[in-house]
Design a protein that fits this description.
This protein has about 70 residues and is an all-alpha fold. It has helices at about 1-25, 40-50.
């Protein structure tokens, strides 16, 4: 029983990580559902290796430091 709870805990953590990474690449978390179709995980893997999109946040400053 404890092992099953740990597996669920790890899978939920990986789900959160994947959705945060999709948002970093300027895609919505709904793209995670592409993994349920055959070979959809390849598209998901491609989205996850894309570079992070640097865009302003709603508080007026940037997430990244200015490059000199």
């Amino acid at each position: 029983m404890i092992i099953y709870l740990l597996i669920i805990w790890i899978l939920l953590g990986l789900l959160g990580f994947t959705i945060r990474r999709l948002y970093d690449t300027d895609h919505t978390g709904w793209w995670y559902w592409i993994s349920v179709i055959p070979f959809g995980y390849l598209f998901l893997l491609y989205f996850m290796v894309l570079p992070t999109v640097e865009k302003p946040v709603r508080w007026g400053s940037y997430l990244f430091k200015e490059k000199k």
